[in-house]
TrEMBL record:
One of its GO terms (molecular function) is methyltransferase activity. Keywords: DNA damage, Methyltransferase, Transferase. This is Cysteine methyltransferase. CDD domains: ATase (cd06445). Coiled coil: none annotated. InterPro entries: ATL_DNA_repair (IPR052520), MethylDNA_cys_MeTrfase_DNA-bd (IPR014048), MethylDNA_cys_MeTrfase_DNAb (IPR036217), WH-like_DNA-bd_sf (IPR036388). Residues 7-89 form the Methylated-DNA-[protein]-cysteine S-methyltransferase DNA binding domain. GO terms for biological process: DNA repair; methylation. It comes from the Bacteria.
DNA sequence: AGTGTGACAAATG
DNA sequence: ACATTTGCCACAC
């Protein structure tokens, strides 16, 4: 995990893949876990720049408020929200409701 | 090699 | 409380 951090992107993808089903995390949390707390934007950009990777559940990555900020980038459709709901995440108005229940923090869960 | 950007976040006005 | 601006750091051109 996150061994090939030759590119920050690679690390982001690794962490994103580690997100367990039914859970979500924030860009800042991933960035913080990677050591670059202030690079929250890079995390989101990683998905965008790389194009939605199939192995990378970008739909499980939301902003600090638990809002599906990037759902627009998934396309006109909303597989992002649909996926989350399928995982058991309550999403209303593009925003996660039970965020406290589904929030997954790598710095805590992967606390080394 | 420098500039611009970006699916955020926190700080002001 | 809400809206807007700055800061941030790594990648693409």
């Amino acid at each position: 995990m996150a061994k090939d951090h030759t590119n920050f992107f690679n690390s982001v993808y690794d962490v994103a893949r580690l997100i367990p089903p039914g859970r979500v995390t924030s860009y800042g949390a991933i960035a913080h876990y990677l050591g670059s707390k202030g690079s929250a934007r890079i995390v989101g950009w990683a998905m965008n720049a790389s194009g939605i990777h199939e192995d990378v559940p970008a739909h499980r990555v939301v902003n600090r408020a638990g809002i599906l900020t990037g759902k627009h980038h998934f396309g006109t459709i909303n597989p992002m929200q649909k996926r989350l709901e399928a995982e058991g995440v309550i999403v209303v108005d593009d925003k996660i409701q039970n965020l406290d229940q589904v929030y997954w923090d790598p710095t805590v869960e992967l606390a080394l």
